[in-house]
């Protein structure tokens, strides 16, 4: 598994508190603080289930060295900002974008070396290669409705089962989004 870290968090959530209140048939503001926490929890749960970023965020993926192809976790890839590496002397270097190819036609996306170059040597340490990229569907208007509905179903389940949920995604939510899920072979 590739180590990864969110560098810039999503600026918004995929569903609004108004959408949640309509889904739950709530008319007052008494539960707003709790519903706001459930939006975050429901979104995190669905992102974990899908192995995707839902709303645009900037992520770094870390590799022990250059590989033939390097998979970028948390699709959908929007742009690769940089590929950096620690050279044999331990200095952080930035790879020229002409030295690698971004394959964003596959999900997940990959970075390959250009056939006319060789990967540079790296220091023999964990996380010697750092790929910084932007991923996610976009903003809330770009998120597929089935993903939003799955988040709402999880929020509804958590709202109605505050103490006993056993960490399981409601089956209806799974059925809606299984085609979007990233599986590791």
Give a topology summary.
Blueprint: E1 3-8, H1 17-24, H2 32-50, E2 57-63, E3 69-72, E4 77-86, E5 92-94, E6 100-103, E7 109-113, E8 129-135, H3 145-160, H4 171-177
Antiparallel strand pairs: 1-2, 2-8, 3-7, 4-5, 4-8, 6-7
What does this structure look like?
With about 180 residues, the protein is an alpha+beta fold. The protein folds into 2 domains: about 10-50 and about 140-180, Hypothetical protein yqbg (Orthogonal Bundle), CATH 1.10.3230; about 55-135, no CATH class. The chain is about 25% helix and about 25% strand. It has helices at about 15-25, 30-50, 145-160, 170-175, and strands spanning about 5-10, 55-65, 70, 75-85, 90-95, 100-105, 110-115, 130-135. A 5-stranded antiparallel sheet has the order 1-2-8-4-5, with no helix packed on it. The radius of gyration is 19 Å and the shape is elongated. The model has no long low-confidence stretch (mean pLDDT about 95).
In a nutshell, what does this entry contain?
With 185 residues, the protein is of the alpha+beta class.
Could you spell the SSE succession in H and E letters?
EHHEEEEEEEHH
What is the terminal separation in angstroms?
11 Å
Count up the helices: 4
Gross geometry: elongated
Number of strands: 8
Give Rg in angstroms: 19 Å
- Low-confidence segments, given as residue ranges, are none
Share of residues in helices: 25-40%
Mean pLDDT: 93
CATH fold naming of the largest domain: Hypothetical protein yqbg
The CATH architecture of the largest domain would be Orthogonal Bundle
Main β-sheet description: 5 strands, antiparallel
Q: List the strand order in the largest sheet.
A: 1-2-8-4-5
Kindly give the count of domains.
2
CATH top level class name of the largest domain: Mainly Alpha
Proportion of strand residues: 15-25%
The assigned structural class equals alpha+beta
């Amino acid at each position: 598994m590739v180590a990864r870290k969110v560098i810039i968090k999503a600026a918004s959530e995929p569903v609004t508190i108004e959408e949640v209140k309509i889904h739950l048939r709530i008319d007052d503001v008494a539960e707003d603080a709790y519903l706001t926490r459930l939006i975050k929890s429901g979104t995190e749960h669905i992102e974990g289930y899908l192995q995707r970023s839902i709303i645009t965020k900037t992520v770094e993926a870390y590799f022990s060295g250059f590989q033939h192809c390097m998979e970028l976790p948390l699709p959908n890839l929007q742009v690769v900002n940089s590929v950096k590496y620690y050279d044999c002397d331990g200095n952080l270097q930035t790879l020229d974008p002409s030295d690698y190819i971004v394959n964003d036609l596959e999900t997940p996306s990959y970075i390959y070396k250009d056939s006319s170059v060789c990967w540079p040597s790296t220091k023999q340490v964990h996380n010697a290669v750092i790929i910084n990229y932007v991923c996610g569907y976009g903003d809330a208007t770009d998120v597929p409705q089935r993903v939003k509905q799955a988040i709402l179903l999880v929020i509804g389940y958590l709202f109605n089962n505050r103490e006993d949920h056993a960490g399981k995604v409601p089956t209806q939510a799974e059925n809606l989004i299984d085609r979007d899920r990233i599986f590791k072979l």
